[in-house]
Amino acid sequence: MALVLGVESTAHTIGIGIVNTEGKILADARATYFPKKGGILPREAADFISENYSKVLKEALAQAKVSLKEIDCFAFSQGPGLGGCLKIGSNVTRYLAIKHKKPLIGVVHGIGHIEIGKLLTEAKDPVILYVSGGNTQVIALSGGRYRVFGETLDIPIGNCLDQFALQVGLKHPGGPEVEKLALKGKNYIELPYIVKGMDLSFTGLLTSAMKLHKTGKYSLEDLAFSLQETAYAMLIEVTERAMAHTNKKEVLIVGGVAANKRFCEMLEIMAKERNAKAYYVPMKYAADNGTMIAWAGALMLKSGVKQELSKTSVRQKFRPDEVDVTWT
Ligand code: ATP
Ligand code: FE2
């Protein structure tokens, strides 16, 4: 059994987790940057990560009651993400691996979200709905890779909710704020529902919701309610088709938007109608964290993956379907 330390630093969060190769979580430490106003400023986020890396590392080691010397493998988020944030996480982690003469494994951020979801639920071979601020993809394991069956053609769902919130004067991140307001909404206001084949578009929906807000004719509660209902129905339509196409009987939501109760409820209804089972990554591990990177790294390590240091440079664009899944 080996100990793997994983580092997440794709955007706003510096997260460090420690797991063993049997799937036991020994530590999960993190610090998250919140912009003073507006959205993430990449430079500020990168500074935040460099200022907090060592504090979070110390906390993770203390939680696991281990020293760096006892770590058998270091894993890090190789991409996709913001260049500056990725570079700090990868450079410091690479240094630790070299100093302690241990292997270094680069993990696709989205695969981290998927694998922690599978570890913490009973999902074995699900269709995965990866919904966050930076990504929106419907994924399933097929032919040895996590294939993307459908995705956003423009902005991700979380970003759509965040931008709407910002425009109407709510706090960042907007997802939870929109969710709170939507609970008080009663009237559905028609908004653009855009599904093209297996792909989705959220910009029309966002622009339309913002325009309607400016007219002053609709309550923010009703607009938040309608925005959620429309966006989540679009996502569920594509997910259902991916399930029919792949003949899979499980669905798993991962990523920050998985924290949304209404979304999970809608997914549950769809799954029941198909005699399938819906799973949700536990709230604590829905948002970005180092544990998901540690666990994906542990799976890769166990399956014999060895990466040369020269092949572990960061990639601002990195898709789950670019990596062979050697571990399931
Ligand atoms: P990634 O790098 O994977 O794209 P991310 O940087 O967006 O991830 P996450 O923590 O996975 O980070 O997701 C954050 C997103 O989740 C934000 O857009 C936020 O508004 C959204 N979110 C968080 N809680 C909720 C909620 N309850 N309902 C809807 N959206 C939510
Ligand atoms: Fe993420």
UniProtKB/TrEMBL annotation:
<dbReference type="InterPro" id="IPR034680">
    <property type="entry name" value="Kae1_archaea_euk"/>
</dbReference>
<dbReference type="GO" id="GO:0005506">
    <property type="term" value="F:iron ion binding"/>
</dbReference>
<feature type="binding site">
    <location>
        <position position="288"/>
    </location>
    <ligand>
        <name>Fe cation</name>
    </ligand>
</feature>
<dbReference type="GO" id="GO:0005737">
    <property type="term" value="C:cytoplasm"/>
</dbReference>
<keyword id="KW-0012">Acyltransferase</keyword>
<dbReference type="GO" id="GO:0000408">
    <property type="term" value="C:EKC/KEOPS complex"/>
</dbReference>
<dbReference type="InterPro" id="IPR043129">
    <property type="entry name" value="ATPase_NBD"/>
</dbReference>
<feature type="binding site">
    <location>
        <begin position="130"/>
        <end position="134"/>
    </location>
    <ligand>
        <name>substrate</name>
    </ligand>
</feature>
<keyword id="KW-0479">Metal-binding</keyword>
<comment type="similarity">
    <text>Belongs to the KAE1 / TsaD family.</text>
</comment>
<feature type="binding site">
    <location>
        <position position="175"/>
    </location>
    <ligand>
        <name>substrate</name>
    </ligand>
</feature>
<dbReference type="InterPro" id="IPR000905">
    <property type="entry name" value="Gcp-like_dom"/>
</dbReference>
<feature type="binding site">
    <location>
        <position position="113"/>
    </location>
    <ligand>
        <name>Fe cation</name>
    </ligand>
</feature>
<keyword id="KW-0408">Iron</keyword>
<protein>
    <recommendedName>
        <fullName>tRNA N6-adenosine threonylcarbamoyltransferase</fullName>
        <ecNumber>2.3.1.234</ecNumber>
    </recommendedName>
</protein>
<keyword id="KW-0808">Transferase</keyword>
<dbReference type="Pfam" id="PF00814">
    <property type="entry name" value="TsaD"/>
</dbReference>
<feature type="binding site">
    <location>
        <position position="109"/>
    </location>
    <ligand>
        <name>Fe cation</name>
    </ligand>
</feature>
<keyword id="KW-0963">Cytoplasm</keyword>
<comment type="function">
    <text>Required for the formation of a threonylcarbamoyl group on adenosine at position 37 (t(6)A37) in tRNAs that read codons beginning with adenine. Is probably involved in the transfer of the threonylcarbamoyl moiety of threonylcarbamoyl-AMP (TC-AMP) to the N6 group of A37.</text>
</comment>
<dbReference type="GO" id="GO:0002949">
    <property type="term" value="P:tRNA threonylcarbamoyladenosine modification"/>
</dbReference>
<dbReference type="GO" id="GO:0061711">
    <property type="term" value="F:tRNA N(6)-L-threonylcarbamoyladenine synthase activity"/>
</dbReference>
<feature type="binding site">
    <location>
        <position position="179"/>
    </location>
    <ligand>
        <name>substrate</name>
    </ligand>
</feature>
<feature type="binding site">
    <location>
        <position position="130"/>
    </location>
    <ligand>
        <name>Fe cation</name>
    </ligand>
</feature>
<dbReference type="InterPro" id="IPR017861">
    <property type="entry name" value="KAE1/TsaD"/>
</dbReference>
<keyword id="KW-0819">tRNA processing</keyword>
<feature type="binding site">
    <location>
        <position position="260"/>
    </location>
    <ligand>
        <name>substrate</name>
    </ligand>
</feature>
<feature type="binding site">
    <location>
        <position position="162"/>
    </location>
    <ligand>
        <name>substrate</name>
    </ligand>
</feature>
<feature type="domain" description="Gcp-like">
    <location>
        <begin position="29"/>
        <end position="295"/>
    </location>
</feature>
